[in-house]
């Protein structure tokens, strides 16, 4: 007890172990690294633990204090990781050991390790902050973005392209049609579709099929239609053919001569604003030196304006030839007639 009293009354207070512990820890780490860089010891996988500060909090769960004032941390349990398709494995637990906190690799064996400050080494070992990887965009929106951004740099060519594109798209949306009918019903007085031909603006054949009427054929009308019994052997049924034809006509400008007869045989109504009937175009009659309000035959207009003979002979008409002739007649007055329709559009 006397010794205790002497130490308490007259002796100096014991030195603070916090600072000695910090100095010992630094010296230990420097020696350890020096030996590791020399190759005498393997590098420690566990990140260096910090020395406890003065008046620090009690040790947490899993930590123990040693005699020299350092903290020994027990190894942490392995945490589950998630492997993403766009990057490396990411830890699910924020408290898991971070691999980049391990000491930086040695550059030279003879470097003065004692002069390197521990804080600077940790700062150099810290990874650079990277932005989160952007989510990959779909291919479709990327294409749309490029198409939207491209015209902004050159607005004038864009307007020119619109005009040229409109002129190019107009013929593609225009077709000519002609149908041949046979007689069905009582005494063959009902006209039923037996052949249909559709040509493009440039006269190319888009559709040409023989059609089998749903009713019994009484009169083939071969003198005008050119239809014979053998043509009906492999003919397309009316319902199937009608569906195919309407897919071509829908949304397009349809040219024809006395075209209302063709639509009636198809049991179809086409908008008047998209119909061009060459039998009722006054500028076409004026060009042929015929009365404007007269209904001229396709054969007469073709002979006078195109100088070509059609519907000749006793073998019957050709629906392909008639559709091509109607389209060529329309082209003769296309600009004038379209301007007239733009000023006074027909009512459906």
Task: Spell out the key features of this protein.
348 residues; alpha/beta; Nucleotidyltransferase, domain 5; seven-stranded mixed sheet; two-stranded antiparallel sheet; elongated
H and E order: HHEEEEHHHEEEEHEHEHEHHHH
Outline the low-pLDDT stretches. Answer: 50-61, 65-70, 79-104, 106-116, 136-169
Count of helical regions: 12
Text of the CATH class of the domain at 174-343: Alpha Beta
What is the number of beta strands?
11
Cα end-to-end separation = 122 Å
CATH topology call of the domain at 174-343: Nucleotidyltransferase, domain 5
Biggest pleated-sheet summary? 7 strands, mixed
The percent of residues in helical segments reads 25-40%
Strand content: 15-25%
Shape: elongated
For CATH, the homologous superfamily of the domain at 174-343 is named as: Ribonuclease H-like superfamily/Ribonuclease H
* SS-derived structural category: alpha/beta
Average pLDDT, all residues: 73
Provide the CATH architecture of the domain at 174-343: 2-Layer Sandwich
**What Rg is obtained from the alpha carbons, in whole angstroms?**
47 Å
Keywords: Exonuclease, Hydrolase, Nuclease, Nucleus
GO cellular component, one term: nucleolus
Protein name: Interferon-stimulated 20 kDa exonuclease-like 2
GO molecular function, one term: nucleic acid binding
């Amino acid at each position: 007890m006397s010794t205790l009293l002497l130490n308490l009354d007259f002796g100096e207070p014991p030195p603070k172990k916090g600072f000695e512990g910090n100095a010992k820890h630094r010296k230990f780490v420097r020696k350890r690294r020096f030996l590791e860089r020399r190759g005498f010891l393997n590098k420690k996988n566990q990140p260096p633990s910090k020395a406890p500060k003065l008046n620090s909090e009690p040790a947490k769960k899993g930590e123990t204090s040693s005699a020299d004032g350092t903290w020994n941390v027990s190894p942490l349990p392995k945490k589950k990781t998630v492997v993403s398709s766009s990057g490396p494995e990411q830890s699910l637990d924020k408290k898991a050991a971070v691999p980049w906190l391990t000491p930086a690799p040695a550059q030279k064996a003879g470097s003065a390790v004692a002069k390197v400050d521990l804080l600077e080494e940790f700062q150099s070992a810290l990874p650079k902050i990277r932005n989160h990887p952007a989510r990959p965009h779909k291919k479709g929106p990327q294409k749309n973005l490029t198409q939207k951004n491209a015209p902004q740099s050159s607005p004038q060519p864009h307007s020119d392209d619109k005009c040229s594109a409109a002129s190019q798209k107009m013929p593609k949306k225009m077709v000519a049609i002609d149908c041949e009918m046979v007689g069905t019903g009582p005494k063959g007085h009902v006209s039923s579709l037996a052949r249909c031909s559709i040509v493009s603006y440039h006269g190319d054949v888009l559709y040409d099929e023989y059609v089998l009427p749903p009713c019994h054929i009484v009169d083939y009308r071969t003198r005008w239609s050119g239809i014979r019994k053998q043509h009906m052997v492999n003919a397309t049924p009316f319902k199937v053919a009608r569906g195919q034809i309407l897919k071509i006509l829908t949304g397009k400008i349809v040219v024809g001569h006395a075209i209302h007869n063709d639509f009636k045989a198809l049991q179809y109504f086409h908008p008047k604003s998209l119909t061009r009937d060459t039998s009722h175009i006054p500028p076409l009659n004026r060009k042929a030196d015929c009365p404007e309000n007269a209904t001229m035959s396709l054969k007469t207009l073709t002979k006078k304006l195109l100088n070509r003979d059609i519907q000749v002979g006793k073998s019957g008409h050709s629906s392909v030839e008639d559709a091509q002739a109607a389209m060529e007649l329309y082209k003769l007055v296309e600009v004038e007639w379209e301007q007239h329709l733009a000023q006074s559009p027909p009512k459906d």
